Amino acid sequence: MSTPQIDRRSFLLASLAAGGAAAALPLLSGCSTASPGGGVASASAMASMTAGTPKRGGLLRVGLGGGGPQETADAHIGILANSDLARSLNLYATLFKRDPATLALLPSLAESAESDPAGSTWTVRMLQGAEFHNGKPITADDLIFSVQRIFELKGAVAELMPWVDPAGMKALDNRTVQFTLKSPTAIFKEPFAMIASGIVPVGYDPAKPVGSGPFELKAFTPGELTSMKRFENYFGNVWLDELDFVSFNDDAPRINALLANQIQATEALPPGQIAAVQAGGNMQIIESKSGATRFFAMAVDEDPFTDVRVRQAMRLLVNRQQMIDQALAGYGQVGNDLFNMYDPMYDAELVREQNIEEAKSLLKSAGQSNLTVELATAPYIAGTVEASQVLVQQAKEAGVTVNLKKMDLPAYFEGYGKWPFSGDFFNANEYFIQVGLNQLPTSTYNITHFNDPEYNALYKKGVAELDEAKRKDIADEMQRIEFDRGGNLVWTYATVVDAVAPGVNGFVPDKYGLPLTSYDFARAWLS
Amino acid sequence: MTNADSALTSRVEVRDGGVRRSPRRFVAPWWVRRLGGGFCTLIAVSILIFLATQVLPGDAAKSILGRDATPERLSALRAQLGLDRPAIEQYLSWAGNFLTGDFGQSLANGRNVGEVLIPRATNTLALALCAIAIALPVSILLGSLSAARRDGPLDQGIVVTSLTFNALPEFVIGLGLVVIFSTGLFKVLPAVSLFPPDESAFSNPMALVLPTLALVLAISPYLIRLVRASLIDALDSEYVLTARLRGVPERRIMTHHALRNSMTPVIHGTALLLAYLAGGIVVIEYVFRFPGLGGLLLEAVSSRDLPLIQATALLLAALYVVVNLAADLLVVRLTPRLRGVGA
Description:
The structure holds two protein chains of two kinds. Chain A is an alpha+beta fold. Chain A is about 30% helix and about 20% strand. Chain A has 17 helices and 19 strands. In chain A, the strands form five sheets. In chain A, strands 1, 8, 9, 10, 11, 12, 13, 16 and 17 form a nine-stranded mixed β-sheet that branches. A four-stranded antiparallel β-sheet of chain A has the order 4-5-7-6, covered by helices on one side. The termini of chain A are far apart. Chain B is an all-alpha fold. At the A-B interface, α1, α7 and α13 of A face α3, α4, α8, α13 and α14 of B.
């Protein structure tokens, strides 16, 4: 009985992914002429959005990409769908957060974090007088409990702080914890700015989620609706009285709900529908040119990608600007096979441009002149399937046949990490965090199976280097290795386009890559 | 009892029963036997579903963890969800609980399956009833007009229009309605359902308007053509000819003779539509973000949430059995030659 339904759904999804039936149907060729025309309009919208003095009150309903029945309110694990991310960021405070304009770390629940000269002991002091939603003061014990819970559940953040010893934390006073590390590091604070590093009270029960974020939970039905209200004793400003997250399985109804004024904000418009939303009325468009990375991944231990010449040829045959124009309607910046162009460690000297001749000669010398590869793809984030289709076309120019293996998400993630040639995405993380996420043999998301001894050694040296200039030199060396022999084909740093109704204020462009100013609803206010 | 599902067979049995009339020997009424057969069907369905989910790639743990599914996290979660037990043991423990009324907990989020299922089923019931309540009379009216004015301009107009709507995919109809009534031309109706999960569609009638309309447009063409074809058959029959020769007015022939006799396929068609509306309208549910059963089953399958898949599919299968039985009972009432059967 379920088979025809799945077919119907995938048909529907495919149709909507191709541009949406509510708007005009901008097929691939149609998109290619569109330029990111949001620039001018969004600048004026932005002026109106930041104008005025924030005031308290009101309910904001936000439409988000849902995660179905698996949506979670847990602080530390299972945070996958956009609605999970948004819930986590508003229910739970983290020690640090990022400045949306510069990506610099800012203290949030932490007042300070300082290390000894070697970086082997770090001392975190939390804000005086901060409370959890249930009125309990936040103490050093809660921080220790939270970190231990992250390690016990093997949350993704645990991998990013291999130096933290769950048994090596000590409360110095009521709001100060001393971390005695397994190995010295300069990258101590960054993992504590990640989603899924929220501070929870001792004895935390995910079924009754208590945090210290700007909003506290009223009701949560996974896959449907999350209702929250302002946490009156939050340590910062919160303007909204109430905040609802409405989960959507599809883009078209989400955008229709915005246009029909049933929700007042939505995230990440599909590139093909941005023009229609702009034309359709008075919505404010927030365009965020971000450092969030979209890439294809070649497994360096799987034929034919074991040969570095094949990997380099694949990287050389791509016309990245054309790919962005066709797959993302121009909403993206050209990628250079490295992560997060806005990171201070980013090596802007490494630039990759299309060179069909060189690609061909590399393939010839590798004995792969008639190369055929299979690319696994799924709509895991906007534009990926379209970009894969563009790659198929571009590869033909260099004599390479790319066969698409297009799947739905469960099937794609079932084989995630095993596909020889697939794709992935990341937000704009700090360089050494990003390396921890997907470039090391221990990384959960290392789908290229990259395991380069020289590179791994540099990482070890880099994370322990407290001198930032020296750390940057090491990062440059590492990026050179990625550029010369890695498996990532980074084709774009994505531009995220959100839309909010008139009278919704406070959102600013964000370089991190998460929609709606990284779901920072504490800053939102209604006029 | 395996052939009990066919309406035809049961009608034959009914007729035999009517002829023989052995008053002393107790034979359960045919519809009781059908219910028994339906129960066996449900058991078979539950086993089939279980086997199917075992064949599907991935499991609930893999689905929950998505791209975070490292082997360590997977084995921990599998143990927590009881997925590390042998398959037979998983099925038997589920079936045992189910028979005692414990539908279990969703693997995806730990919620009680009954609590998840009942509101969704209520919403779907509301939508299906509204759609049938409008589509059925409209289709009978238009189908009759069409048959009565066969090959005339009205008939041709109705046939062409219904073929057009029949050819349009449901989501195009749905999105078209949204553009007309919600976001574009008139901004009078909600584009999507946003009522709180603890309320039902019955108490939020505005949320039902567009999905109902879309369904009416989607299913009416089928019903109209069913009514028209069946009525044309009846109008061409000998008893109608006889009636005409006896000078019975055309209108009376239509209402008292032809229409009534042509209802059997319409009733069976409506029963099939009801079963389809209960589980097969995922597309309409998605377009209007309507929280119904079809989407629930789809989500349950893609999250490999076995207790929820089982409960939802069994509910749909039970509905199928009951609706078909009800249709047969109704046909028996309407068809004099099948009547007088009590067995």
